[in-house]
C-alpha cells in the first residue's frame, strides 16, 4: 500500500486508532481487502479512508470510515 493512497489488500493505514471489525458470527477479525483514500487525489490533503473488509468463512463484509 502506498502511504496515504488507495490500495487493494495489504495492511491498512489508520488516521485514528486501528478499527478491525470482528465477525458477528464467529468473532474472528475480518481481513482488509481494500482501502480508498478520501480527499484530493492530486494533492497532499488526505481527509481519511474508507477501509473494506471481507470475511469469506461467514460470507460477511464490513466498512470502516476514518476521517
Structure, explained:
The protein has 67 residues and is mainly β. The protein has strands at residues 7-8, 32-39, 46-55, 60-66. A 4-stranded antiparallel beta sheet has the order 1-2-3-4, with no helix packed on it.
Number of helical runs? 0
Structural class: mainly beta
So what's the overall shape?
elongated
Q: Which stretches are low in confidence, meaning pLDDT under 50 for 5 or more residues running? A: none
Q: In what range is the share of β-strand residues?
A: 35-45%
In a few lines, what is going on in this structure?
By secondary structure, this protein is mainly beta. It has one domain. The protein contains no helices and 4 strands.
Task: Supply the key terms.
4-stranded antiparallel β-sheet; single chain; mainly beta; 67 residues; 4 strands; elongated
Amino acid at each position: 500500500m502506498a502511504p496515504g493512497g488507495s490500495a487493494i489488500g495489504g495492511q491498512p493505514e489508520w488516521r485514528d486508532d486501528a478499527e478491525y471489525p470482528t465477525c458477528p458470527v464467529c468473532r474472528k477479525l475480518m481481513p482488509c481487502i481494500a482501502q480508498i483514500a478520501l480527499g484530493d487525489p492530486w494533492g497532499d490533503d488526505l481527509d481519511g479512508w474508507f477501509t473494506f473488509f471481507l470475511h469469506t468463512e461467514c460470507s460477511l463484509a464490513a466498512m470502516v470510515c476514518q476521517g
